[in-house]
Amino acid sequence: MKNGPFLIALACGVLLMGEEARAQTPAAAPVASAATDAEAWSFSAAAYTYLLPDDPDYLQPTFIADRNRLHLEARYNYEGKKTGSAWIGYNWTFGDKVTFELTPMLGGVFGDTSGIAPGYKASIAWRKLELNSESEYVFDSGGPSDNFFYTWSELAWSPADWVRLGVAVQRTKVYQTDFDIQRGFLVGVAWKKASFTTYVFNPAADPAVVLGFTLDF
């Protein structure tokens, strides 16, 4: 029995080590989960239907994929009809009470309109107000006279999580208009990951209506 105290001490040590290992195992799980979330892709698809007074109506689809800092985007009928564009950008997000999101981008334009386009997407949010803007300058392969600056911006107020009210401006040469800068208002509703927004530009004369549908997944 001379080894009795030694055997008892050894058994206690083994039990304590087992308890410590079990206590540490759950703490490691959130680290792997956080890394997985940071590397996950997020996707968004949008379709904007333009109902025009003097030009044929048309559909403008957009598809977006984001993974951490990486931003990928594809558009059709944005820079011109029968024209597509592909974009790559870098996402920045910062701020606490006032949040900022900025994505500088570079795109290639191809189709009836072709060229290269630097651009950006940006948003500022504070409480129930949000300002969104996206712009690009197309260097047209046809020559400097065909270069063009496109922009779309909207300022919206959300009195509830499911509704948006605000104003919008755009500059485009996809269709003919008497206004270099078109101004109007917007009304939007959201449900889960889907949203539907109606825009009315130039409401006082020759109004153009845009019906926007967006789905995040």
Short description, anyone?
This protein has one helix spanning 4-38; strands spanning 41-51, 58-67, 70-76, 83-90, 92-94, 98-111, 115-126, 129-140, 148-160, 163-171, 182-191, 194-201, 208-216. With 217 residues, the chain is an alpha+beta fold. The chain is globular, with a radius of gyration of 27 Å.
Counting structural domains, the number is: 2
C-alpha end-to-end distance: 69 Å
Uncertain runs: 1-29
Helicity level: 10-25%
CATH class of the largest domain: Mainly Beta
Major beta-sheet overview: 12 strands, antiparallel, barrel
| Beta-strand residue percentage | over 45%
- Overall geometry: globular
Strand order of the largest sheet: 1-2-3-4-6-7-8-9-10-11-12-13
Reported CATH architecture of the largest domain = Beta Barrel
Order of helices and strands: HEEEEEEEEEEEEE
